[in-house]
């Protein structure tokens, strides 16, 4: 309603007032107060003023702002005395509410101020300890180097410990993904699709989560967390984007990123790149760094060895002083493997669509020809990082999954080369990406990130194909090298086992038991068919579980479990999925002990596949800690909380939402646990 109402109308004011009521019942008192102010700014009717004034006073009392509450109550009494004939509010009702509020204020004033220690986050450990003089947004333990085969790369200047923060970079440009549905509860069947999208819950500029967005006055799509963000977005880019909203949504997020990048940088700088591409023939595509124009911009020096001699070479993206910064010059030099791209690829198909589109509606600042010329710059879609968030469905037991929040370009983070077994983890807070060491990194060792294909999620052949098609290189990381040269044995989370002795089955088309005293053999395609049927049965059980049919779901999953144990290894991924489903069903029924047992079985599968220090392991430990906490198994909960904190802090840092929740659980358990005072008499 707020997004589609006209500004400065009664409809708009009523929408804000009604939303303030919802926020009040959610206990979001600060946001409620802001919406009350917005309602009054847009002309909230005089006849309804007592409604929001009472709500405002309640919020101020709840927040402990007693002097302001006193003033609001006095204003309400004075206004009501001056206009006692408000039809919507009987005098007796208002007087009763005012008396109740005064009593609340008095009670608060009589309480001794016993507020706990300030909970403000100092963000210790979130900022870089010592920023790199050569590389912006990176710690001093990281160095930018040139490799004759890999190009630019990041290398450790000293030994780096697990969990250490290496890069913290704000996106050079980011665009909210419009079509993603957040993981919220939406099980009610209705002919109206009332589901909200990410665009309704996150600020379109800073990506901050908010329940009370402030919409753009000119369109119903763009929404912001505050008036300040709205104004900044308008001045930087939205004044151009606003009349193009429908077109940009049609063309997609990468096209939108291209335009926003152009608007942030400025037409003059981007037009230089258009001139460069106009000079290049359709077939004679050269590397950007080989162009004399680019070399004049990239005079930072690196070192490479050639014929036994160390020579200096320009590092693309560095300024005249040799420093690499998060700017447009660095963004332009992120486009690698241009010899594998056609001119259409380099210009990007989405920017070609922008060129063909009509910009006659744009009348502020830039004209049509300027926009078409500027947006021909490469968007670097292959270097755009998905900014992710985790969410859950409401209910007794929640299901969490990651969804793509936005797409952003990070010039420094993009310098990390790929490994299918990386030594870092990336996490996002709003528009900021942080890179942490996930394991010990030795001095001189390259710092590596995973572009998506991970050794624990897909086989070497599939990884190689994905990397070759999207990034134009053959991965030679240790994980790929090891898998390519070892025997073609399936990993434990995909292995079949003997029905008689539970030993692993080995072979190609015909599998034989690996135990010497067992002569069982079976065709692989037979077991593959059984596995396919089993997956269908597990899917049906999951559907029962999501529909709240807990007992039938448990029966179905128990049958799947018996079948799976007869031919799958104990660490097979499907067995882990079954155990996780049983844990969820038992938790929903309040049987915390059984739930914990099933989840511990699932945990073994996750550890076998992803490793004991993986982020996946950390999230499973977080789930187990919640189960123990709800079942009030204090020693088990505290032990699991400690393990989960250790693992998650390596990947996400100390201020991750899950770590904060773990600390709250630990504090609660410690407060409720009696402290021993010595031997009893």
Tags for this model:
681 residues, alpha+beta, Serine Threonine Protein Phosphatase 5, Tetratricopeptide repeat, three-stranded antiparallel beta sheet, globular, methyltransferase
Care to give the gist of this entry?
It is found in: Cytoplasm; Nucleus. This protein has 681 residues and is an alpha+beta fold.
Q: How would you describe this protein?
A:
Keywords: Cytoplasm, Metal-binding, Methyltransferase, Nucleus, S-adenosyl-L-methionine, Transferase, Zinc, Zinc-finger. With 681 residues, this protein is of the alpha+beta class. Among the domains are: 10-110, Serine Threonine Protein Phosphatase 5, Tetratricopeptide repeat, CATH 1.25.40.10; 496-672, Alpha Horseshoe (Serine Threonine Protein Phosphatase 5, Tetratricopeptide repeat). The protein contains 24 helices and 17 strands. It has a 3-stranded antiparallel beta sheet. Strands 4-10-9 form a 3-stranded antiparallel beta sheet. Strands 15-16-17 form a 3-stranded antiparallel beta sheet. Strand 9 (384-392) and strand 10 form a beta hairpin. Helix 3 (49-62) runs parallel beside helix 5 (91-110) and helix 20 (573-588) packs antiparallel against helix 21 (592-610). The longest helix has 23 residues, at 524-546. Mean pLDDT is 77; it is low at 112-125, 184-191, 280-306, 346-383, 389-396 and 676-681.
């Amino acid at each position: 309603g707020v997004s589609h109402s006209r500004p400065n109308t009664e409809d708009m004011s009523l929408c804000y007032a009604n939303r303030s009521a919802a926020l009040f019942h959610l206990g979001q008192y600060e946001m409620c107060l802001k919406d009350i102010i917005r309602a009054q700014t847009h002309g909230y009717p005089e006849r309804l003023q007592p409604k929001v004034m009472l709500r405002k006073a309640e919020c101020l009392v709840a927040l402990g702002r007693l002097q302001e509450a006193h003033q609001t109550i006095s204003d309400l009494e004075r206004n009501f005395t001056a206009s006692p004939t408000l039809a919507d509010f009987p005098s007796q009702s208002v007087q009763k509410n005012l008396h109740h509020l005064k009593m609340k204020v008095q009670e608060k004033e009589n309480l001794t101020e016993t507020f706990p220690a300030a909970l403000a986050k100092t963000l210790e450990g979130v900022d870089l300890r010592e920023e790199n003089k050569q590389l912006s947004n990176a710690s001093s333990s990281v160095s930018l180097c040139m490799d004759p085969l890999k190009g630019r790369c990041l290398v450790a200047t000293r030994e780096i410990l697990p969990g250490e923060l290496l890069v913290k970079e704000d996106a050079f440009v980011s665009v909210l993904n419009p079509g993603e549905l957040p993981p919220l509860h939406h099980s009610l069947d209705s002919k109206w699709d009332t589901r909200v999208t990410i665009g309704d819950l996150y600020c379109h500029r800073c990506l901050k989560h908010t329940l009370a967005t402030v919409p753009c006055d000119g369109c119903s799509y763009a929404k912001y967390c505050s008036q300040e963000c709205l104004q900044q977005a308008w001045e930087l880019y939205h004044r151009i984007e606003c009349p193009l909203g429908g077109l940009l949504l049609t063309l997609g997020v990468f096209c939108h990123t291209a335009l926003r990048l152009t608007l942030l940088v400025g037409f003059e700088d981007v037009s230089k790149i258009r001139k460069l591409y106009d000079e290049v023939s359709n077939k004679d595509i050269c590397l950007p760094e080989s162009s004399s124009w680019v070399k004049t911009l990239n005079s930072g020096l690196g070192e490479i060895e050639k014929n036994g001699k160390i020579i200096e070479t320009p590092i693309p993206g560095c300024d005249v002083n040799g420093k690499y910064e998060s700017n447009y010059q660095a963004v332009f030099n992120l486009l690698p493997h241009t010899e594998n791209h056609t001119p259409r690829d380099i210009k990007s198909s989405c920017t070609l669509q922008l060129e063909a589109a009509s910009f006659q509606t744009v009348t502020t600042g830039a004209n049509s020809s300027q926009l078409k010329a500027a947006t021909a710059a490469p968007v670097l879609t292959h270097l755009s990082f998905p900014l992710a968030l985790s969410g859950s469905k409401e209910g007794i037991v929640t299901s969490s999954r990651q969804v793509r929040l936005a797409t952003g370009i990070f010039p420094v983070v993009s310098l990390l080369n790929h490994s299918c077994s990386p030594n870092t983890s990336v996490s996002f807070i709003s528009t900021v990406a942080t890179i942490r060491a996930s394991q010990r990194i030795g001095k001189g060792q390259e710092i590596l990130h995973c572009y998506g294909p991970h050794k624990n999620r897909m086989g070497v052949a599939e990884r190689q194909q994905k990397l070759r098609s999207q990034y134009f290189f053959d991965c030679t990381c240790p994980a790929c090298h090891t898998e390519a040269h070892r025997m073609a044995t399936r990993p434990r989370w995909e292995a079949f086992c003997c029905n008689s002795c539970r030993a692993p089955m080995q072979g190609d088309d015909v599998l034989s038991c690996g135990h010497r005293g067992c002569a069982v053999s079976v065709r692989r395609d037979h077991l593959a068919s059984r596995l396919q049927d089993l997956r269908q049965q597990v899917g049906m059980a999951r559907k029962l579980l999501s529909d709240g049919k807990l007992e039938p779901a448990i029966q179905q999953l128990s049958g799947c479990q018996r079948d799976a144990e007869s031919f799958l290894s104990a660490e097979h991924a499907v067995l882990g999925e079954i155990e996780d489903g049983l844990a969820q069903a038992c938790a929903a029924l309040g049987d915390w002990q059984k739930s914990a047992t099933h989840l511990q079985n699932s945990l073994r599968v996750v550890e076998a596949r992803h490793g004991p220090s993986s982020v996946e392991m950390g999230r499973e430990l977080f789930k187990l800690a919640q189960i123990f906490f709800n079942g009030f198994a204090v020693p088990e909960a505290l032990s699991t909380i400690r393990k989960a904190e250790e693992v998650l802090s390596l990947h996400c840092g100390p201020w991750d939402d899950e770590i904060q929740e773990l600390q709250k659980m630990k504090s609660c358990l410690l407060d409720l646990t009696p402290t021993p005072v010595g031997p009893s008499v």
